[in-house]
UniProtKB/TrEMBL annotation, chain A:
<comment type="subunit">
    <text>Heterooligomeric complex of about 850 to 900 kDa that forms two stacked rings, 12 to 16 nm in diameter.</text>
</comment>
<keyword id="KW-0547">Nucleotide-binding</keyword>
<protein>
    <recommendedName>
        <fullName>T-complex protein 1 subunit zeta</fullName>
    </recommendedName>
</protein>
<dbReference type="InterPro" id="IPR002423">
    <property type="entry name" value="Cpn60/GroEL/TCP-1"/>
</dbReference>
<dbReference type="GO" id="GO:0140662">
    <property type="term" value="F:ATP-dependent protein folding chaperone"/>
</dbReference>
<dbReference type="InterPro" id="IPR002194">
    <property type="entry name" value="Chaperonin_TCP-1_CS"/>
</dbReference>
<dbReference type="GO" id="GO:0016887">
    <property type="term" value="F:ATP hydrolysis activity"/>
</dbReference>
<dbReference type="InterPro" id="IPR027409">
    <property type="entry name" value="GroEL-like_apical_dom_sf"/>
</dbReference>
<dbReference type="InterPro" id="IPR017998">
    <property type="entry name" value="Chaperone_TCP-1"/>
</dbReference>
From TrEMBL, chain B:
<keyword id="KW-0067">ATP-binding</keyword>
<dbReference type="InterPro" id="IPR027413">
    <property type="entry name" value="GROEL-like_equatorial_sf"/>
</dbReference>
<dbReference type="InterPro" id="IPR017998">
    <property type="entry name" value="Chaperone_TCP-1"/>
</dbReference>
<dbReference type="GO" id="GO:0016887">
    <property type="term" value="F:ATP hydrolysis activity"/>
</dbReference>
<dbReference type="GO" id="GO:0051082">
    <property type="term" value="F:unfolded protein binding"/>
</dbReference>
<dbReference type="InterPro" id="IPR012721">
    <property type="entry name" value="Chap_CCT_theta"/>
</dbReference>
<protein>
    <recommendedName>
        <fullName>CCT-theta</fullName>
    </recommendedName>
</protein>
<dbReference type="InterPro" id="IPR027410">
    <property type="entry name" value="TCP-1-like_intermed_sf"/>
</dbReference>
<comment type="subunit">
    <text>Heterooligomeric complex of about 850 to 900 kDa that forms two stacked rings, 12 to 16 nm in diameter.</text>
</comment>
Length: 533, 535
């Protein structure tokens, strides 16, 4: 009986080799699930939620998040991969595959009686070399649209069918370019991702302007306008309760009428001010005014505004109050007093579209594009979700490139190069640590190998071909997923993010090291023990 | 948990299921989709058979409408649900042709299954289907046999809508199509854009389908409130707020010290009500349409001034009435200003076989709103007719955007099948097989039409092909082949969407190689089966 069980008789425990086997199987199991996802020719997974919701995905991150993993080791790996996604937005599948493969390679040595500590040291040395190789391989290029398009294409191609990937590539690139202002860091929140369950996924487009997911609530307001001023405000246009508990006393109907009148007066005055502004700037021209209010607008105020032809939208999102001034110009105002023309933004066209019960408001032809909207359309929930996740990753990929000002050759070329260079360097490593470094060099080849496998190619043949090509020419070569030939990713425009690869080299080995160094797994924690079993 | 080793299953939460590979995931998915499409297949066409569906609320449906069957079936299998979603989208986008989506998707997958069993890799099938679906999309417009030239011409609209209705309520299609066409013309003749909102369908039990009639204006299934039941040339005001002394938003309490004050208080109330009614009367209003409640006292004064009062509970219905009358709904108490007042030629409360209704008529000008009153003896027939009319109206909506038609009665599908098969031969790769099958899929439509009309499905196709005319389809009445393009035409956009959606869903199902299902979450089981009693 293990010591822990004297302390806590309910404790569960596995030790030494058993503990290692536990970690190994989990890492390999997870790898098996995700390996078919990798690359542009990976397959889809269908996830069915508890309530029957359907999700179709190729994205490793989404898969790990939705899969409800319970195994402790698997959950750890999944978390590491998710962390990768949170930091750089891509590379989750590669991470899981690499961790799994590191464990698999380590298993061989462990079976021969090598101490895990030795392997761990080797991983460390190998990682340092790999990072050096990354520096030499990284291509510093001027960041232009073409480069960004290539990066976006490489990222999106692994998540969607080619036709959609092509379409979204341009959309995400242009969206990021539109909002980037020189000298300012890019805030991706300023790209709104809006979805409409409508038409086909191929109707997805970039709206250089704003799309709000609500509409005017008055039936009389026009649904289409040209040349509009936009007033973006946070003014309460509905009855406000007093903070203290208050109450009116009246003794006849006349008094009550008066009370009601004065109750409305305050709000009416604010509305009048807006109307006055509208009259000042719009009367006699073909222009109109749109009021977008973060607070509420009650039916009576709506009615007053509608009579003047003012479109009023209520309860706008907080973020939209930031985005409207960015796109339309003007200021977000908090008080109805002292409204001036300078506070107003501008939109060349306004349109309200009704889909079933939902309304969407489009503000287009805006003077600036520092905030824009990616409008995702799709025939059903799962298509939209799939696109949404892909767009998110695509945006991150483009932004990363702008930050890094560098890219790394994709299509497995980077991994092949690291492996070959490592094997050369290994000779200089003294002692047993060399074993770990060798394992590392073999493990990283999992990426090109899986790419080839998923494309239905002979993975051994392709891999050997790539290695010999690289050794001969010394330039990075990747695998062409369509026919298995060796290609130059830089010439083909298959480019990955530098920071993704960097992160990948940082995260995966560390986690594999941690898993290898575990020699006891026990379940005896206060929170963990009871309940199930 | 530490004991079980290996496999993904052990990593997941208890109760989760995991299927992967061609055998376990793909073929199972295909099987489920095939089953689903067999259900609706026999409902195709005018001679299609009805399905009786009892849903989880024990509501009974007898219909041939695939959209309804799909909706009420409560499908659980995830892949089959994809088909249901595609059908739903067809329903929302074009309104008709749901059955076509389901049948085509089912057939496409059946063909794919055969190909997989002969050893073709799913990715080859996918490329083949993609190619074929693009090809069909490109040739479809060349199959146009008829183009509607005038959207306000009733005879042309009737021609376009008759086949839509015929596939749901066969035998009454010409009368019903006339009703719908009339309604469509009414709402579009003033040049306004066609909006489904403006054509209302009201079901009143009793009578027969032939008595279905189109009204210019609105029919509200509710009698007038007071004793005034009939007004001609009426000025109408629409109020969207309760017509009684309003409460303030702040809490108010009546503070009364003496009995006199109490007496005066209710008197004051009465005076306000009286003044309100007098103001309304002075504005010349003869009919009030109310969205909110009306207090007894106000009602009393309205009666005195013989003003007709109609209450409408739904705010959308109220909006429609306002639009039809040309009125603006008033949200404050007090007399309406002249611009807010609408006009109706006649407002009357009538009884149509024991259902009391209020009819707003507006004959003189274009009324912008038309109502089709369906008459039938049973709820089921009415529901089914309503769905048919709904499909017809949706089709008209698409017609306003695109006026092209292809030959109906399976002629168009036979032609597509023929052309795709020819196209297949020009493809050198392995995907040729898939393209060929894609073509064959379309043969199911004429075949099914023949089958449901009692003819031999195997003879039909050779006969159609022999005619070598893209207008020749299946004549369900005689069970022979015939050029029916003068009477039976199908809307091009409907076909286009159906084919696109069907191939889309088939491709999606073929692209899935793993399914991971979470444990069904708890909560009350709404779909509990009723206990079947032995008898």
């Amino acid at each position: 009986m293990a010591a822990i069980q004297y302390v806590n008789s309910k404790a569960e425990l596995v030790r030494k080799t058993q503990a290692l086997t536990l970690n190994l199987t989990a890492a390999k199991g997870l790898q098996d699930v995700l390996r078919t996802n990798l690359g542009p020719r990976g397959t889809l997974k269908m996830l069915v939620g508890g309530a029957g919701q359907i999700k179709l995905t190729k994205d490793g991150n989404i898969l790990l998040k939705e899969m409800q993993i319970q195994h402790p080791t698997a959950a750890m790996i999944a978390r590491a991969a998710t962390a990768q996604d949170e930091i750089v937005g891509d590379g989750t599948t590669s991470n899981v595959l690499f961790i799994g493969e590191l464990m698999r390679q380590a298993e061989r040595f462990l079976g021969e009686g090598v101490h895990p500590r030795v392997l761990v040291d080797g991983f460390d040395k190998a990682r340092a070399i790999a990072l050096k190789v990354l520096e030499t391989l990284k291509v510093e290029k001027e960041v232009d649209r073409e480069l960004l398009l290539n990066v976006a294409k490489s990222s999106l191609g692994t998540k969607l069918i080619p036709e959609m990937a092509k379409k979204l590539t341009e959309i995400v690139t242009d969206a990021v370019l539109a909002i980037s202002q020189t000298g300012k860091s890019i805030d991706l929140h300023m790209i709104e991702i809006m979805h409409m369950p409508h038409k086909m996924d191929t109707d997805t487009r970039l709206v250089k302007g704003l799309v709000l997911d609500h509409g005017s609530r008055h039936p009389e307001t026009p649904t289409k306008l040209k040349n509009c001023y936009v007033l973006c405000c946070n003014i309460n246009l509905e009855y406000e309760k007093t903070e203290v508990n208050s109450q009116f006393f009246y003794s006849n109907a006349e008094q009550r009428e008066k009370l009601q009148a004065s109750e409305r007066k305050m709000i009416d005055e604010r509305v009048e001010k807006i109307i006055a502004l509208k009259k000042k700037v719009c009367d006699g021209t073909d222009k109109s005014l749109i009021v977008i209010n973060q607070k509420g607008v009650d039916p009576v105020s709506l009615d007053m505004l509608a009579k003047e032809g003012i479109v009023a939208l209520r309860r706008a999102k907080r973020r939209n109050m930031e985005r409207i001034p960015l796109a339309c110009g003007g200021n977000a105002v908090n008080s109805a007093d002292d409204l001036t023309v300078e506070d107003l933004g501008w939109a060349g066209s306004y349109q309200e579209i009704t889909l079933g019960d939902d309304k969407f408001t489009f503000l287009e032809d805006v003077p600036n594009t520092f905030s824009c909207t990616i409008l995702i359309k799709g025939q059903n929930e799962h298509t939209i979700n799939q696109l949404k996740d892909a767009v998110r990753d695509g945006l991150r990929a483009v932004t990363n490139t702008i930050h890094d000002k560098a890219v790394v050759p994709g299509a497995g070329a980077f991994e092949v190069a690291v492996s070959v260079e490592l094997k050369k360097e290994v000779k200089n490593i003294k002692g047993k640590a060399r074993l770990g470094a060798e394992a590392f060099a073999d493990a990283i080849l999992i990426i090109p190998r899986t790419l080839a496998e998923n494309s239905g190619l002979d993975s051994q043949e392709v891999l050997l071909d790539l290695i010999s090509q690289y050794e001969q020419h010394g330039v990075p070569v990747g695998v062409n997923v369509n026919d298995g030939a060796a290609i130059s990713p830089i010439a083909e425009g298959i480019l990955d993010n530098y920071c993704v690869k960097q992160q990948f080299l940082q995260l995966s080995p560390v986690l594999a090291q941690q898993l290898l160094l575990v020699d006891e797994v026990m379940r005896a924690g206060k929170q963990m023990g009871g309940g199930n079993q | 948990m530490f004991q079980n080793t290996g496999g993904l299953q052990s990593l997941l939460k208890d109760g989760a299921r995991h299927y992967s590979g061609v055998e376990e995931a793909m073929l199972k998915n295909i099987e489920a989709c095939k089953q689903l499409s067999t259900i609706t297949r026999t409902s195709l066409g005018p001679y299609g058979l009805n399905k009786m569906v009892v849903n989880n609320l024990e509501k009974l449906f007898v219909t041939t409408d695939a959209a309804t069957i799909m909706r009420e079936l409560d499908v659980h299998h995830p892949a089959a649900r994809l088909i249901v979603m595609a059908a739903k989208l067809q329903e929302t986008e074009v309104g008709d042709g749901t059955n076509l989506v389901v049948i085509l998707a089912g057939e496409l997958l059946r063909m794919a299954e055969e190909l997989i069993q002969t050893g073709l890799h799913p990715s080859d099938i996918i490329t083949g289907y993609e190619k074929a679906s693009k090809y069909v999309d490109s040739i479809l417009s060349s199959l146009t046999v008829y183009t509607l030239s005038n959207l306000t011409d009733k005879t042309q609209i009737i021609k376009a809508l008759t086949p839509v209705i015929a596939s749901k309520v066969y035998g009454y299609e010409s009368h019903l199509a006339t009703c719908v066409a009339e309604a469509c013309v009414i709402v579009t003749e003033s040049g306004q854009k066609f909006d489904l909102e403006n054509v209302r369908v009201v079901k009143i039990q009793g009578g027969v389908l032939d008595q279905t009639k189109t009204y210019r204006g609105m029919v509200i299934p509710r009698p007038a409130e007071g004793t005034v039941k009939h007004v001609r040339n009426a000025k109408v005001a629409v109020y969207n707020c309760p017509l009684d002394p309003q409460q303030s938003d702040t809490k108010g309490t009546v503070l009364i010290k003496t009995a006199v004050e109490l007496k005066n208080y209710s008197k004051g109330e009465e005076e306000i009500a009286q003044k309100l009614v007098e103001d309304i009367h002075a504005a010349g209003v003869q009919v009030l349409v109310l969205g909110g409640s009306v207090s007894e006292i106000v009602m009393h004064f309205l009666e005195l001034k013989s003003i007709m009062v109609v209450k409408i509970n739904s705010k959308f219905e109220l909006r429609r009435v306002a639009r039809m009358l040309g009125a603006t709904s008033v949200v404050r108490l007090g007399a309406p200003i002249p611009e807010e007042i609408g006009f109706a030629d006649e407002v009357s409360s009538e009884e149509i076989s024991s259902t009391k209704v209020t009819i707003f008529r507006r004959e003189s000008e274009s009324s912008k709103v038309a109502t089709v009153v369906i008459r039938a003896s049973t709820q089921n027939v009415m529901d089914d007719t309503e769905r048919a009319l709904d499909d017809a109206l949706n089709t008209f909506r698409s017609i306003t955007k695109d006026q092209r038609f292809v030959a109906g009665a399976g002629a168009c599908e036979a032609e597509i099948a023929k052309r795709v098969k020819a196209y297949a031969m020009s493809n050198p790769g392995l995907d040729q097989y898939a393209v060929l099958r894609f073509g064959q899929v379309f043969e199911i439509i004429p075949k099914t039409l023949a089958e449901t009309s009692g003819a031999d499905p195997n003879y039909i196709l050779p006969k159609i092909y022999a005619e070598n005319n893209l207008k020749v389809g299946v004549d369900v009445e005689s069970g022979t082949v015939k050029d029916l393009s003068e009477v039976v035409v199908d809307h091009l956009v409907t076909k286009q969407w159906a084919i696109k959606l069907a191939s889309d869903v088939a491709l999606t199902v073929l692209r899935i190689d793993q399914i991971i299902m979470a444990k069904p979450s708890g909560g009350p089981n709404l779909n509990k089966k009723p206990v079947v009693e032995d008898d």
